[in-house]
Amino acid sequence: MDSLRAALAEVVGERFVTVDADVLAARATDHTGRYSGQASALVRPADAAEVSAVLGICRRAGMKVTVQGGRTGLEAGTVPEHDDVLLSTERLTAVGAADRENLRVTVGAGVTLAAVRRVASDAGLLFGVDLASRDSATIGGMVSTNAGGLHTVRYGHMSAQVLGLEVVLPDGAIVRRSMRMGAENCGYDLPALWVGSEGTLGVVTAVDLALHPVPEFRVTALAGFAHLSGLIDAAHVVRRLGGVDAVEMLDGRGLDLASARLGFAVPTGLPWYLLVELAGHRDLTGELADALERCDPDDEPAVGIDPAGRARVWAARDAFADVVGLFGPPLKFDAALPLDALAAFVADAVALVASRAPDAVPILFGHVADGNVHLNVLRCPDESVLYRPVTELIRDHGGNIASEHGVGAHKRNYLDLALSREDIGAMWTIKRAFDPDDYLNPAVMFPDWLRRPH
Prior knowledge:
Layout: H1 2-12, E1 17-18, H2 21-27, E2 39-43, H3 48-61, E3 65-68, E4 84-88, E5 104-108, H4 113-122, E6 125-126, H5 139-145, H6 152-155, E7 162-168, E8 174-178, H7 190-194, E9 203-210, E10 212-213, E11 217-225, H8 228-238, E12 244-251, H9 252-262, E13 272-280, H10 285-295, E14 302-304, H11 307-318, H12 320-323, E15 331-336, H13 342-356, E16 361-367, E17 372-378, H14 387-396, H15 421-434, H16 448-451
Parallel strand pairs: 2-4, 3-4
Antiparallel strand pairs: 1-2, 5-9, 6-10, 7-8, 7-9, 11-13, 11-14, 12-13, 12-16, 15-17, 16-17
Helix pairs in contact: 1-3, 8-10, 13-14
């Protein structure tokens, strides 16, 4: 370790290599607090050249490397399992000027989502992805997991925002691929391969991001429903509206907790609530009101037109970030389900939780227009009683076990519930072509059976 530390320090400087046990222990524990590993060193390179040199040192020394960004992921994707060297992108924070003519900006992988949104706003533009963890989630990590968020129904996942990437490959090569024109068709679409690869095919060091014009008008509404089937019917209606910007499902159990335990001023009294936001270059309030009237909600919708009013409506959705942590780290499921299968899945999942963990509290929310649902099971210290049964339930209802948080280390041994072994084998072939030593993010994505001797 002394020689490895010295070699790393020679590249990045003494200040940016850490072997302190307490620091490493904190860095080896994930955002949820549920999953921990072990690391040998933390190194913080400042640019792509330093990343390349660090990877070369680790590869030659036979050391595994785990890449870390803002560490806000929920699937243990940054938890080391092999006494790894932790490679943090936190110093890759260069931010270019927003290009208002071509609607783009170039940022380092360590730049936070909040910083990108500020740069876009200062230029009179917006960035299409937003997350509750915006103040700490980094662009590199969001690219690696193909993050979604609150506005995917309009702008799509991170894959739709990426115009180009700078990536350091496992062999140390620095590759830069950027689309400068709208009609380029030369060879493989490598950025599409790297987005969502969760650091298994290289370290993202810089990203060219698409920006968007700011709509002149916004209107937000929150409507309550006595039955989930009514909310789903309403979601079918509103997601077809022009200018739809967000369609969120909120569990009344979560709002009850937000009101009773946290003192949030949120609506209560009904089992389900639907939040809808429309945005455009004209006032869409009338269209939203007409659509909600056709949906026949079970209370009078709350509507926000000005910024303060919209913030009051969005407070109901924002409350879930605090609610899910009320009883310690929750057990989280990030699923994509066909909208028409959602009600049956929710009923079966709630019944399963009640039978396997009677003291647990299931809370659901998500981007329902895309079928993206987050099931958080509160007060469930032993995940073994629920994780596989609920994951199999997702599969049995025609869903996918990962929607916007990726596979990470946590779901790697459940991957065959979503993909065939042939699919997984094809991905493994690509991984080994880029990283034959399997030293970069080795705990992530691929199931254990692939790495066992045959």
